[in-house]
Specification:
binds magnesium ion, binds BIS(adenosine)-5'-pentaphosphate, alpha/beta
Length: 239
């Protein structure tokens, strides 16, 4: 991967040479804006977003064996077993579009997943190490974001009835599909997801903070401003 790091990122200002970002981890509690920011970064860098939540929901929708196992666990707001999630991520990372980097959204979520990912990256002779970005937003704001969120089931665009409504209420701006609310976007399940975050994922944030190539960003700002901040820290940490 390192040889490709001198190429021009797709989607960036024409003629401006910037290195491809390599693997980026977006960490943070439910609703901080990992998915929203990942989509902004995809536009800027042209590397894929790999959301373990989206991949699991696709498995649920397709009724795969993984989806059948994950459905109830996700519905309770608990974490899907590490071995299943790691295997799913391994399959996705084997696809060629990840060669210049990728944005992992919602993975790793446990220290076991982090150890698995670190080992995998360390085994690559030419790969760049990860840059981890943790997004912070306070609890009350998160609850409002979660209960106000609407998703497009076709293109996965993310809206919010309070802060980012579609132009036509209830329908996606991109493809006109009827917007949906995630089954786990209730106050009760959100509280369980927060408990899972504090117990299992907050230690992952500390793991990457200790390793360096880590930044924490304030997620309670306009979306474009947060994205610009993430780009700036990634470029700084990659120097
Ligand atoms: P997942 O889908 O990853 O859910 P999550 O971590 O709870 O995070 P969310 O997707 O809810 O929030 P987000 O941070 O992406 O915020 P978004 O950008 O949408 O996981 C779901 C479940 O799958 C888990 O509970 C678990 O069961 C399982 N799972 C997934 N990964 C796993 C793993 N690695 N291991 C084990 N199990 C796993 O934004 C939220 C809302 O806020 C939107 O409405 C948006 O429009 C709005 N918003 C965003 N940014 C802003 C802003 N700057 N200002 C105002 N509003 C904003
Ligand atoms: Mg998300």
């Amino acid at each position: 991967m390192s040889s490709s790091c001198s190429t021009v990122s797709q989607g960036r200002e024409e003629g401006r040479k910037t290195p491809l970002p390599g693997p980026i981890l977006l960490l943070g509690a439910p609703g901080v804006g990992k998915g929203t920011q990942a989509k902004e970064l995809v536009k800027l860098w042209g590397i894929p977003q790999i959301s373990t939540g989206d991949l699991l929901r696709a498995n649920v929708a397709q009724g795969t064996e993984l989806g059948r196992t994950a459905k109830e666990i996700m519905g309770r707001g608990e974490l899907v077993p590490d071995s299943l999630v790691n295997e799913m991520v391994a399959v996705r990372l084997a696809q060629p579009d990840t060669a210049g980097g990728y944005i992992l959204d919602g993975f790793p979520r446990t220290l076991v997943q982090a150890g698995w990912l670190d080992g995998r990256l360390a085994a690559q002779v030419t790969g760049l190490p990860v840059v981890a970005v943790s997004i912070k937003v306070d609890y009350n704001q998160l609850l409002r974001r979660i209960t106000g969120r609407r998703n497009c089931p076709v293109c996965q665009s993310i809206y919010n009835v309070y802060g980012k409504p579609p132009q036509k209420e209830g329908f996606c701006d991109v493809d006109g599909a009827a917007l949906a609310q995630r089954a786990d976007d209730t106050e009760k399940v959100f509280e369980e997801r927060m408990r899972a975050y504090e117990a299992s994922t907050a230690p992952v944030v500390e793991h990457y903070r200790a390793l360096g190539r880590f930044a924490e960003v304030d997620g309670d700002r306009p979306i474009a401003e947060i994205a610009a901040g993430i780009v700036a820290v990634v470029e700084r940490l990659r120097q």
